[in-house]
Amino acid sequence: MGQQHLDDVFASLLARRGTQGRLRRLTLPSPGSVDFSSNSYLSLSSDAAVQASYLERLGRACHQGHFSLGSGGSRLLDGNTPVAEALEREIAAFHGAPAALLFNSGFEANTGLFSCAPQKGDVVLFDELIHASVHDGMRLSRARRVPFRHNCVRGGDDGRDGSSSTGLKSLDDLLTELTSGEQGIQNVKTGRSNVFVAVESVYSMDGDLAPLKDIVECVEKRLHHGNGYIIVDEAHSTGWIGGRGRGLVSHLGLESRVWARVHTFGKAMGCAGAAVLCSPTTRSYLINYARSLIYTTAMAYPALAGIQTAYEYLQSGQIEQRLDHLRLLMRHTHHVLTSLISRARPTRDILHINEGPPQSPIVPLFTSKARSLGQHCQERGFMVRPIVAPTVPAGTDRVRLCLHAGNTVEEVELLCNAVEAWVRQQMETRIPVETTYRRSRQSSKL
């Protein structure tokens, strides 16, 4: 009886979410559909040469007796291996970091890091669009949490269209409040308490880059005692930004001025897992206090081999040709979409895009009818996904396009043709508000 009652509660909550258009479902891509949705920006996971290299690595391990389907336990028990520790050293050296610590996923890396690094009395300032895993980690910490306006370093900065309707302050304004005036926190002002600043290098829903150099300079300027610690989630920059895909921090030469980085491997790298780049002391601290590392089974050899194979590909330099093509697609997609909007002239609620060229392979198509546009494109063989609130802020629903090195110019143009056909269909079926009002007025006089 109790179980049925709980199922009834769940059913009611699911029904309410369904009426709000927010019900999530597991879906499978249609066979033969063109991928404009996954985060596999370099298309490495489906590359025949990369797959062959991976299988060869597995074969060698089997022959040498090093292969195991499972790790057998956590890193602190029986799951640690020479392969894992060697891989951490290679990852740290590749990204120009003192040390690295592997986690099973980016989610676990963020929850582990943010739950234990900030201490009681510390403050975490975070971009309002920071990933859900960071929020979950912060909730487990004992630090005070304060959001700042997306990508807004100073009060005079212009935010992205629709990026914040909450009146949030800039990073600089918050740091000023923490370090001066009556509202300042004494221990922060004197350097006895720390301020952690959490940002992403590339934001997964809008595709825009963090103004990271400005953020670093702002933190260093306001926190004179060196008690500011910047954490950058490089999930969506790993593999394609910077020299051989080292990420935005390395691209800007900020390795020594950013306290910690989280690189994940399930996106452009085409495999799975993550690593926190940090100091050797921080690495030891996480091994002792990061619960998402301590109390979970370690990655087995097949997962480690996948990460090794992906990094080997980056280091080989073969990535450059793929990156050239990916950047070409980014420019071409923006050009075709801009031309589409110029021809069709849809209202903003039907379709609009960011004015400037995309900063990443992520291209949002903003529309109040994201589910309709997504379904239209899916029915024509394109794998795209509508993204709606609460995953994105209310009023910023969109279809999220992800471009890949494996896509072609022709595929981009065919997708944009499908988008234009949907736009024109929406405009043809819409009855202008003024016309409806006039008709109702005329009817009332009869």
From TrEMBL:
InterPro entries from the UniProt entry: Aminotrans_II_pyridoxalP_BS, Aminotransferase_I/II_large, AON_synthase_class-II, PyrdxlP-dep_Trfase, PyrdxlP-dep_Trfase_major, PyrdxlP-dep_Trfase_small
Q: Which UniProt keywords apply?
A: Acyltransferase, Pyridoxal phosphate, Transferase
**Cofactor(s) needed for function:** pyridoxal 5'-phosphate
Record-listed E.C. numbers: 2.3.1.47
Q: What class of enzyme is it?
A: transferase
Instruction: Output one GO MF annotation.
Output: pyridoxal phosphate binding
Please state every residue range assigned to the domain named Aminotransferase class I/classII large: 34-419
Protein's UniProt keywords contain Chaperone = no
**Pfam families associated with the record:** Aminotran_1_2
Gene3D superfamilies for this protein: Aspartate Aminotransferase, domain 1, Type I PLP-dependent aspartate aminotransferase-like (Major domain)
GO BP terms:
biotin biosynthetic process
Recorded hits in PANTHER family, A to Z, give:
8-AMINO-7-OXONONANOATE SYNTHASE (PTHR13693:SF77), CLASS II AMINOTRANSFERASE/8-AMINO-7-OXONONANOATE SYNTHASE (PTHR13693)
Q: Which family does it belong to?
A: Belongs to the class-II pyridoxal-phosphate-dependent aminotransferase family. BioF subfamily.
Q: What is this protein called?
A: 8-amino-7-oxononanoate synthase
Q: Which organism is it from?
A: Purpureocillium takamizusanense
